[in-house]
Amino acid sequence: MTANELKDLIRAGLACEHIELDGDGRHWFATIVSPEFEGKRPIQRHQRVYATLGGRMQTDEVHALSMKTFTPAEWAQAQQGEA
C-alpha cells in the first residue's frame, strides 16, 4: 500500500483537516488532525482511525500504524509551540 492510498482510506472514513504520513509500505506513522476527535480520549481517537481501515489491519495490508492525533485547536497550539 502506498502513502497516498492509506491517506485516501483514512480521509474516506474520517473528516481530516490535516494528515501527514510516513512509512515503508508496511509500517506507518501518521499525524492526523480531525474535528471528530473533539472530546475523545487518545485511545478513542486511535480506534476511530483504525475503524476507517476496516479489515486491512487484520489482513496485514497495513502491518503497523502508529499515530499522533489532534483536534484542530490542539494542532494550532502545537504549531505555535514549534514557531
From TrEMBL:
Tell me the domain of life: Bacteria
| UniProt cross-references to InterPro entries, sorted A to Z | BolA (IPR002634), BolA-like_sf (IPR036065), BolA/IbaG_stress_morph_reg (IPR050961)
Pfam family membership, one: BolA
Record-linked PANTHER family: BOLA TRANSCRIPTION REGULATOR, BOLA-LIKE PROTEIN 1
The family this protein is said to belong to: Belongs to the BolA/IbaG family.
Instruction: Quote the protein name from its UniProt record.
Output: BolA family transcriptional regulator
